[in-house]
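So, can you check this one?
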Amino acid sequence: MEQYFTQNPTTEKEIFKFDWNVGEEVFNFYTSNSVFSKRGVDFGSMLLIETVLGENDDFEGRILDLGCGYGPLGIIAAKLLKNSLVTMCDVNERALELSRMNAKENKVDDRVEVLASSAFENIKDNYDIIMTNPPIRAGKSVVFSFYEGAYEHLKKGGKLYVVIQKKQGAPSTKAKLESLFGNCETANRKSGYFIFKSIKE
């Protein structure tokens, strides 16, 4: 079975579309096979974006959606945090194509940049917020490279938000973030999912 973090999916492309409500806003997302959570925004990602929005309602600055998939997190952030500039990156070419379609569909393409990047390979800038639903199935070394790169690419005072399930390694993620940042708080938790937040001091 082809994984969602495959760079060039070879399965036949089949495009789906669904509507998604966040508060009073309705979003339209195109998805496809060989991308993560193609039938709707997954629970963990929704908890993550709800936490980011809830803590940063007056936000101005730059956001990185790391491992963006078809782009729901970055696009919701760009739409609702109107003074943000959002970079979305992923290794999956099909996901990137969908992200560009979705940014245009939801009329945020003027404030969204979509980049092909394996973790931070092609990321040059620094950010005020980095958010990620890391690719657990890619293995701990890949997931931890997300955290290490985030530390390097956050501005001073910048925040990293991570969603992870307890059964998929929440304790080891918390320990890694504490060792990197010197801090890690549980910003939210629900139904076995944790939102961890670390601040670059």
Summary: The radius of gyration is 15 Å. The longest strand covers residues 154-165.
